[in-house]
Amino acid sequence: MKLTKDDLKRNFAEENYICGDEITIPVYLALQIEKPILITGEPGVGKTEIAKVLSNAFDTELIRLQCYEGLDENKALYEWNYQKQLLDIQVNKTEQQDNNSQGDIFSTEYLLERPLLKAIKSEKRPVLLIDEIDKTDQEFEAFLFELLSDFQVSIPELGTIKAKQRPIVVLTSNADRELSDGLKRRCIFLYIDLPSIEKEIEIIQTKVPGIGEDLSQDIATAVSYLRANLDFKKQLSISETLDWAQALMSLDADRLSPELIQRTQALLFKTKHDLDLFKKVGAKELTQKLRA
Amino acid sequence: MSAQQNVEQKVQEMTSQLSVNHIEHNLIKFIQILRNLGIRVSLAESIEALESLQLIDIINKDEFKVTLRSLLVKNHHEKEIFDHAFESFFIPQESKQQKQTQHQKKIEQQKATKQEIAEELRFKKDSVREDKETEEIELELTDKQKEIYSQLEPEIKEKIKNYIDSSFPGHLRHSSHTKPALERLIGGSLSYWQRRLKEDDEHKTEPSIQHEVTGDLEMDRVIEDVISNLKNDDNNLITKDLKSIPKEDLPQVTMLIKDLSYRLATKISRRFRQNKKIGKIDLRKTIRSNIKYGGILLDLKYKEKKIQKPKFLLICDTSDSMARYATFILQFIYGISSVVKDIESFSFSEDLERITNYFTEAGSFEVTIKEIISNSQQWGASTDLNTALETFKRDYMDLITPQTNLIIMSDTKTIKLYDAASTLKEIKSKAKDLIWLNTLPKSEWEDLKSVQVFKELSTMIECYTVKHLKEFAQMKFF
Q1: pTM, two decimal places
Q2: Could you give the ipTM of this predicted complex?
């Protein structure tokens, strides 16, 4: 799976992921030195999307582990299929078979593979997405160390299982809490910032085909103005910009107007606080700022 | 191969070797700068960074920067420091030279000022030897103390000088204890003026990074550049002293604190809702639910791990010097009190007041805080922690259980220091933990006896910026 920087840039472009060197270089390094990549940034800036792009680009499976408080090894790595084991013992008993077969109840047949084990046992180098790692407990983070540094896991009954192919590991974090030094040290760090106006125009035009140049410029400028001047509880992300653009397109808009903004504002502001804050500026004033 | 080709090849080899060494040397220096600025870079990471440079086009500055950043930086805050350091360190040779010369001049100027100060602050001691009438002894003050002295008005300087001249008259001048005693007195006076200067300068921010002088001209220049750039950044509200935040920035800080308490509240409530961790098998439940399978234990039931909710008791100093901090801290407590029910709050200055009820009534924060201030007898008075703690011991001791995290927010300055410490020790023995949020910068802790006394009794945390509050919110007991 050797590739050059230009190949990777082309892959990102083909997958309609608009980005510059600040994103492609860390991803390229992670692929080359086979280290996990830890992506942080505001929600909705395209952290998870990178894993999807990589999976499509390499035509490989995307294995996703969604993290949450209380996630443990049984949900993330493996679990013995207890019911199957028990039923097999019962069946063997009733059929009065000899007890030899019972020694095999701790074989792969009874193993329920969870995302991490699946990624390690995969024949083709998969993309392993560990999403929102900051939502887990610190003990789970420590458990991940063995996996992330050696790409192997230990199952007491079966021994150590080494990865056939080192998975491409993508970890994402919304920085809800500070991650441990041990985890950060094992990863390449990538912070995705909100895009510039020019880049956001490009993203809108790529993701919302058929949108007019004027409208995409209006949208990107308005969003950028709102981000810079108002302290929203939920910062406007790229995904919200795209939803807004889509909605405006379906209303046949070719430029932003106060009426259109008012009709579609629910797509941008997700809390009452944010909506009230926007009302202080008002749709009319926002349109005036765009024309200034 | 001709002789000339041979020479050319040798030269090429040497230059390439030189350039590799040059990059290595620069990278090591740059990593040392980052370490001095508080970014922890391990040896393994340094080696990896150097090796990774072979994978990229190092002539391309942006590519070079992004590569180093992705390998050496671990969070958003470090990214900002890294960016400033990179732009200040990796500059053309001519600009580097120019900046170095400027920095050198600045250092020489500082040296000259220090020398002048040392000359000014001399203590005239009568000599015991008959051939000499008096000898002048230089007072050994720290660089920080000399810096404070240099910032003082001429009349204040004059006062200090006169004080030195008139101190320890007569036979006391011959004592060997005179010099250290005088140094302590002047040190104390300068600490007082340091606080006064800080109070006068409303917008002054403490540098968020503490560093030591390395002695390397280039490294010191870059470190100073980064610190001054970080200070000038617009988004440094989180590292600004809460007391000196200008009025126009107050809503923004309020917003930051609200966001912080909102996040913390979500974190706490989620922890208690989603406890899906598997604990020990619950035999009674398992047998009961497996009767339908003829007693074969197919469906296992687990005992849920019982996590006790954190219990907090906050005692907040609302004396004159602390009132501004108290508003922010109470706002933070107000935010999490919606989730953590067992939160008791008290305010104190000359005596103690219970303010828990204000928070349990569902009013907006603005209304709540207005009510507290207007009804309080204690807001803005002087500080007597001992009386407050005695009142607590007498009337509210039953609120303390072995699960209670006792949090005190104060600058430690109080009358009857030792009495307060012994009462606190008694209260602490009944609680789980005692956390002291100190609004004084760590750099001032050493000079204050009160800090030393209370530090022995508690886990003391520096807490005068939003950043400190954030760190406090990330503590394990939440």
Answers
A1: 0.71
A2: 0.83
